[in-house]
Amino acid sequence: MKLASKEAGMIDLFMILGAYLLGGLSTGYYLVKLWRQEDVRNQGSGATGATNAGRVLGKKGFLLTLMGDALKGALAPALSMLFNLSLTTLMLCLIAVVAGHIWPLQLGLRGGKGVAPALGGILVVDPMLASAAAGVFLFVLALTRQFTLSGLAAILGAPILSLIMARPFEQSAGLAVLAIFILLAHRKNIREMLNKSSQRRR
Description:
Elements: H1 2-23, H2 27-36, H3 50-82, H4 87-102, H5 115-125, H6 127-144, H7 147-164, H8 169-185, H9 187-201
């Protein structure tokens, strides 16, 4: 039994590490490198995500990056489910793939903001909750016309929705950690939004 437990622990660790490395495959970075021979991080916000890739490559680049990043976010928990791993490991894999997207090892820890892979992963983990989070996203987008703010609202709302929907503690806690990571990745954006808001009041 001890050997089986040790082997199970090694599989969990391997899956979490693999999820982190998968997250580091930044779709926007490689698309811009392929099409423009440029580093997308030298443009706009300096991130590798869909919004910044769209600034360089247009709508096509935006959509391809969004789909690629969401797909890798979905793949990590999907593989965990395929191997029948615990909910704790599944959530750690989701956190790891988003962490890899935000802080990719091979890109000097300079990646994207994490919204697309997070939403892709949540869709696999809990489709009903993902639908509710998508509703939050669309509602905020209709009000503000701001993609980043809408994505943030959906991600920050996910752990609250998880609690309201009486989901397991591991899921709600994992989503809360995910939200913290994405808040950290967006700290510059948040400061800019707060500054703009204070300037309007003046």
